[in-house]
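User: Show me an example of a complex going from sequences to structure tokens.

Assistant: Sure. Here are the input components:
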Amino acid sequence: MMEAIIAGLGGLVIGFKLLFVNWQNLIMLGVGGVLLWLGIKKDCEPLLLVPIGFGCLLVNVPLSDVMLKDGFVRTIYDAGVDTELFPLLIFIGIGAMTDFGPVLAQPYTFLLGAAGQFGIFLTLILALYIGFPKLDAVSIGVIGACDGPTAIYVTSKYAPHLLGAVAVAAYSYMSLVPVIQPPIMRALTTDKEKKTVMKFTAKPVSKTTKLLFPIVITVVGGCIAPKGLPLLATIMLGNLMKESGVVARLTGAAENEIANVVTLFLGLCIGATMAGPAFIRAETLIVLGLGFLAIILDTVCGVLFGKVLYVLTGGKINPLIGAAGISAFPMAARVVQKVGSQYNKKSYLLMHAMGANAGGQIGSVIAAAVMLSVLAGMGVIR
Amino acid sequence: MEMDNFTFGITMLVAGMGGTLATLGLLSLMMAGLGKLFPYKEEGKED
Amino acid sequence: MAIDVVAPMPGTIKEIIVKAGDAVKEDEELVILEAMKMENPIVAPGNGTVKEIKVKEGDKVNTSQVLVVLG
């Protein structure tokens, strides 16, 4: 009987023993703790980092079976991440929250939203050069969309083994935009350019235009890049619901209840992909590094494109607003306003930057959609 | 047929980035057109 | 010579910092305009005296609407 009791008690300590055998899990428990600390104490994307951090803890407890077949997180993962449902559901909410008025009032800002996507493709090439397989490189490049749901959508479909690293990179760099961007913006522009004052003269946009916008984007964008139709369609559905004003209950559900529930599940699942042995590899660090570079390249190309516009318009467009052509909305636009007003207090770039920023939101989705359709055209994916 | 990484990368840059720029350029023209077609009128206190 | 200080973008008047009769220098903050959930200080385009304040806190303003008149 004594033996049975000892064996039984042994079952209670085996977890601790394994903790020292599987040192990777121990490290990842620490990483999970850091993510939680960033979310809770540093207020860095807490809505995402708290569930991600906790998911990371969960999966790294030795003998944890949450991600094994029929484990509870695995069940959520299979239902929502594997099927790409979660990022799409979140997109309905993002569409319902975003006011595309500033970009519609100044359609040229769509182009700035395109220039901010250069980082995706440059990083893709770099990842290929380093030796990543094609679809892995695509998923790493898409961090440069600076858009969590898009990155998760593409990665979960084509390189699920990179999901944890890509998602963490996309979300954490997104919240670092106010730190990453200003030095690049300062370095690339001359004093004269920085001080350019832009008048905001655009008239408000009519309700008809605002209603037609999501429909046109879905149909035209969908025809050009059918592979990305789910991404485009969900964000535009949310926006149509918001602008129509007749389905306030659905809009409210999309931007609150649905987005909240899905964010919780998605965060947990992403955290749970960060299991020690699979996550602690040189590859992960390289992915994180390349993702960082992607966002730097986005900013560089955005500002350079702004400089081109500055020259083309004879100095009417302040190149700084080029930095706002990424998807981190509305952070990037605020960064531009702040940097601009540091150099010229009489310069108010906010509305122009908001246009570029809303353009970047569309731009990142279009870029991902185009990329998928080009891949399909080449026969790399089906 | 397996395509080499160099061809793949350049194709993605040209077709991908080019496609993105072209698509957004087209959309910006279309939205500018829509804005002209349905100009803003004072819509009372509708909003 | 009176100078009109106008709203550079649509928004809501969050705070009025100066009052009529105040002497202000170039780049001194006159009004805080909240737009897109961001507080934007509207500054004096040049040295002068505040002649008249045309808005009150909480007002919604449109682009080019006169906020403050400097004399």
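The lines above are the inputs; the final block is the predicted structure for all three components together. The mean pLDDT of chain C is 90.
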